Amino acid sequence: MNSRLPATPETLAEQAADWIVRLSADDPGERQQAEAGYRAWKQADPRHAAAAAHLESLLGRLDDIRSRGTQGPARQAIHSARPRRPPPRLATALALAAALLLPGWIALQSAPADILFADLQTGSGEWIARTLADGSQLSLNSNSAVDLEFDAKTRTVDLLRGEILVDVARDSSRPFVVSTAHGNIRALGTRFLVSRQDDATVLSMIESRVEVRIDGQEQAVVVEAGQSLRFGPGSENSLAAIDGEMLETAWQQHQLVVRDRPLAAVLDQLARHRPGLIRYDRSAIAKLHVSAVLPLNDTDRSLQLLANNFPELRIRTLTPYLVIVDHEKNR
Length: 331
Description:
By secondary structure, this protein is an alpha+beta fold. It contains 10 helices and 18 strands. It folds into 3 domains: about 10-110, no CATH class; about 115-240, Jelly Rolls (Sandwich), CATH 2.60.120; about 255-330, Phage tail protein beta-alpha-beta fold, CATH 3.55.50. It has helices at about 10-25, 30-45, 45-60, 60-70, 75-80, 90-110, 115, 245-250, 265-270, 300-310, and strands spanning about 120, 130, 135-140, 145-150, 155-165, 175-180, 185, 190-195, 200-205, 210-215, 220-225, 225-230, 240, 255-260, 275-280, 290-295, 315-320, 320-325. β6 (about 175-180) and β7 form a beta hairpin.
């Protein structure tokens, strides 16, 4: 390790990644020596231990790499990148890149097949708009996926992930339905936003009205323009007033409008609109709520706005693909 380098978050992360590479050595003696050195490095400075903890949580499989003694992902990345041993800082950079890419690789392997093979989908930071076969307009924002099923009797959009804006073409003979894991939204001619979250679906009405049938409930709920409905397990399924015109404008301008939302939920939303990871302790920020308009096409600026409004937060960008959000009580 080059102890003469300044102890910035970036260099500490690189040093931690280099130790993780050494821990995946093929030779048992080399691994044992690396384990002893890694322990000593972490004990030498609390900042070392913090940097190590962040990267260990990213890799997730560090203990498995240690126990198997096989060539780990980080070491494989280095071997495949050069025929001879590269300079130490290049090896460190490659290790850090592998550490950051591994969670995405794991997520890709575990992604449901219906999302991987969805009819329409977007990546991080990508927004698309399409005209459907019936003339309806469908827009998807970042990290969204839908399946389409149109036939002579029905028009169905299955929202698998993310958020959509729908402008429905009138066709009284074929109901237009947006389906999620939490229920169905039925409309004849209308414009609305639908956001699928882990534990609920959020419907925001801009124009006209829809009928919502929530899974597990017999009674349908009618949602009018200027109203929203959050439904799903544990939700109250109650209507709330919204400014539909403002929400549509925010969509067109790629903005996130939130009112008294948990900070964790806001960070999750921002994470959908950027590559890499935003890491934070959900329990440490559970009491913080946000009311704001945040730019989704510049999530770095959004994070800075949050930091300006919450002095107790420290937001560090270790790389363009790794952001750490710390609360003062955890420092």
